[in-house]
Design brief:
single chain; alpha+beta; Jelly Rolls; 2 domains; six-stranded antiparallel beta barrel; four-stranded antiparallel sheet
Length: 372
């Protein structure tokens, strides 16, 4: 009885303070997500449905989120987490892209309304399946029009990023003030966690020939431009070094050439711009499935002197260098010579010191790092 009274008193305090906020639940499994509707949605939260919004985050264009309304799903929405930092664009795979036949038979999205949110939670508010957020919506929304085609579409984020940053800071201050009024000890013991996410609302569709179900295969937040990523429906044929430029390139089975590592850009990013200063790259090894590469960096000056030599692991599929923080967590440094080995049909990274790391685990670490 005493616990019930305490809860009611606390609720009465919280209600006026948090009237400005929205309470939003997001699943947390491979990324933050929640959909207002889902075709053939399981009754049990422990089960992931065949057409779950989680499919939007699985890097597989053959799966899709499918809304579960009786009509085209106009007004249906999905929340997707961005990560800890704002991104410049959104990569969308519209419709059900498992095959051209399924793409045409199902609805595809034409117009989407995007609303930016920031949400906060304390670690003790994390549940078994996700988090309950205290969230606020940015005052401006934007509408994007998707093309009716198979493959990726890169859409520039129409929000003014600097205004979004100011909005985030303002809402965090308001959140801290409100919580300190009723739960002062909780704030000091458990600093709030921040989640940036976007609401995608279906406004109109391209009608399917057979079913009135609206589908989206994949949505990714990114800073990459078109031509700087491998489409999900492409596979890698070769990772090689260009003799003329010295850059590390990727050739897909569709004969598309992409730059994995650009020596000049990497030099500029690292501040190697002094007179006579240079950086050269050498492709040391590529994994048997062409999804990983070890690249040797040599940094020095044309006048002579010491040459700094390091080894960098790259995810070819993500077209990103593996961050030092992830390598260091496995006891690997940039001076360690690395190669690839296969054991029991699993791919491993092996260092000259004898360390062996399952690359599947490292890829999951990169995914988790990008979503928080």
């Amino acid at each position: 009885m005493k616990q019930i009274v305490i809860f009611l008193v606390l609720f009465n305090f919280l209600t006026p303070l948090f009237a400005q906020w929205q309470s939003i639940f997001l699943f947390d499994a491979g990324g933050f997500y929640y959909a207002s509707s889902e075709l053939e949605k399981p009754d049990n939260r422990m089960n992931t449905g065949r057409y779950s919004p989680r499919n939007l985050l699985d890097h597989d264009s053959a799966t899709a989120w499918v809304e579960g309304e009786k009509d085209s799903g106009i007004g249906t929405y999905v929340f997707l987490g961005i990560g800890t930092s704002l991104k410049n664009n959104i990569i969308v795979y519209n419709g059900y892209q498992q095959s051209e036949n399924l793409f045409k038979k199902n609805n595809r999205v034409k117009d989407l309304k995007l609303t930016f949110y920031v949400g906060f939670y304390n670690t003790d508010e994390e549940g078994q399946f996700g988090v309950d957020l205290t969230a606020a919506a940015y005052e401006d929304s934007s509408i994007i029009t998707l093309q009716d085609k198979i493959g990726p579409q890169v859409i520039d984020i129409l929000f003014e990023l600097e205004k979004i940053r100011v909005f985030n800071e303002k809402e965090l201050k308001k959140y801290l003030i409100d919580y300190k009024k009723v739960l002062p000890d909780r704030i000091s013991e458990n600093p709030p966690q921040e989640v940036l996410f976007v609401k995608f609302e279906i406004l109109s569709v391209y009608k399917g020939s057979t079913w009135d179900d609206t589908c989206i295969a994949e949505i990714e937040f990114s800073n990459r431009e078109m031509g700087e990523f491998i489409p999900l429906n492409e596979s890698i044929n070769e990772v090689y070094q260009d003799d003329k430029s010295g850059n590390i390139l990727i050739r897909t089975w569709g004969n598309k050439i992409l730059v994995l590592a650009n020596a000049r850009n990497i030099a500029l990013e690292n501040g190697y711009s002094g007179e006579g200063e240079f950086l050269t790259l050498s492709l040391m090894d590529a994994s048997p499935d062409k999804s990983w590469a070890v690249i040797n960096y040599q940094h020095g000056f044309t006048g002579g002197g010491h040459i700094e030599e390091t080894y960098q692991l790259w995810s070819v599929l993500r077209m990103e260098r593996v961050p030092d923080s992830i390598l260091q967590a496995y006891g690997v440094t940039s001076i360690d010579v690395m190669t690839f080995v296969t054991k029991n049909d699993r791919l491993y990274l092996e260092t000259i010191q004898g360390k062996t790391i399952r690359l599947e685990d490292m890829d999951m670490d990169m995914k988790n790092l990008s979503r928080y």
